[in-house]
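Worked example 4.2. Below are the chains of a multi-component assembly; read each line carefully before continuing.
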Amino acid sequence: MTAIETAPPPARAGARRLAWRQAEVVERVAETRRATTLVLDVPDWPGHRAGQHVDIRLTADDGYQAQRSYSIASPPEALRLALTVERLERGEVSPWLVDEARPGDRFELRGPIGGYFAWSVAAGGPLLLVAGGSGVAPLMAMLRHRAASGAAGRAVPARLLLSSRSFADIIYREELERLGSAPGGPGIVHTLTRERPPPSWRGHARRIDASMLAEVGFPPAAAPKVFVCGPTTMVEAVAEALVGLGHEPGRVKTERFGATGGG
Amino acid sequence: MTTTRGFTGRGRAKADERRVPPGQYVTEDFPVLSAGPTPHTPLDRWTLTLQDGGSPVGKWTWEEFQALPRTELTVDIHCVTKWSKLGTVWEGVTIDDLLAAAGLEEPPAPYLMAHCDGGYTTNLPLEDLLGGKGLVATRFDGEPLAPEHGGPARLLVPHLYFWKSAKWVRRLRFMEHDEPGFWESLGYHIYGDPWREQRYDGD
Amino acid sequence: MSREEMCSMLDGNAAGGLLREVFAFEATAARITCAGCARMMPMGELRLYAIELGAILRCPSCDEAVVRIGRTPRGLWLDLRRAATIVTVSAGIRPESEVCIRDHG
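Applying the procedure described above to all three chains together yields the following structure tokens:
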């Protein structure tokens, strides 16, 4: 077979190819000094599964465009879409989203995208979520979806292991505490990698390693569904450690963010 | 296409039209764009081969290559993704000097395919490489070329879009007819002249 | 945080939008066989490069460029020659409804 050239797909009713839509910023929520959540109105949003992402596209006055992908942090049950974005030092799009975007601003968005890295309560558990920094966003969508699913959600054992640079950098810290302390809530374990934790700290204080995963995670015999998301190096180390502990590689799903940043 | 309030993108200097090809913006960065993982060939295993038909007509180890005549070039480079970087300084061996070192008074064929560690390829007419237009570069900005930028050695053909300046070059194969390389077979222009904005097939 | 800023390697999930332009099915969950080493995996596990020009999706075991896509203003150019099979996953949950597409290239 030689390379096939395809023309842009014609617009037609029922086409399953993705179209760019207009998203409008409705609210901005400062999560940490580096991360902001943008709550968006997206007309005719078709719905999504927790873990999926969107592509967004910004256009400058001279027509220059930049496109990036961001995980959806809101659960399918939410009325509006939420994206949690971390400002990258030399980033091009994240500084605009984190520092500049305000209610009323519009940009292009398409999605939802990604059938591989997605979970719903119907898929069952146990559910093990491992996140580095802003990699927690798609996993938070999963926990929010679980919380919104009542008894069926509570019936799925779930744990989150979240690695952050410092206490102040823990995204969703208070909401995670509330989720974790609710009856039937997920187990939440934190680890800090850069700063010394406060004296009352009960979490870990090092990079995620095999012994932490063995202690915090479900045993391989429980056949948990595992989702790992964060910086590339962290995700690879965690995935390798999980497989080394005996988890089935097919049940460990990974999503890698850029090479730097995050917990 | 609606514009996004307050978005200007990466710092883009106003382009001097005489120096910067159409559609390009000037950057101070040196973005890395790769079609695969960065190879790390140790210098004691590195060789560069000139190939005609099935047989090598020239082959150099790293030491032998370092002993060839060196040329320094200061040039502007233009990436098809629209960034241009001005006044970049490179050092290496010109294709003219490479052919001379192989004892070739004339190129045995009008086209050449560059083959690289990692499998990347790109095609070029010889007339776009001779007369000092093409270099096998081993140094950038006074330092050995970093692996993510194509080190130990890359092709440098600055008058064409930068995807033609193949990173991690190992073999230059003469061809009777022009054949598309890695990106050229995926819709990118077979020649790639930034001044005629030949980014894609059909431009 | 963006998946694409400052990096040249990601996984196939980040190419999801582009893959949806090419395929009518949800491609990141579809399983693909590497023609280089015969490993079978979801497309989301392939390693993504060159998203600025299209997408080069490589096998995480042997680095073979299993799916190559060039994005041009006039369309997408697709090279699947190094993919031996692609198994789509239907929108329903039942795994028995998989369809196997073989490439004879």
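Take a moment to check your reading of the output against the notes. Chain A touches chain B at residues 3, 5, 22, 58-61, 63-66, 92, 96, 100-101, 105-108 (CB under 8 Å). Residues 193 and 245 of chain A are 22 Å apart (CA to CA).
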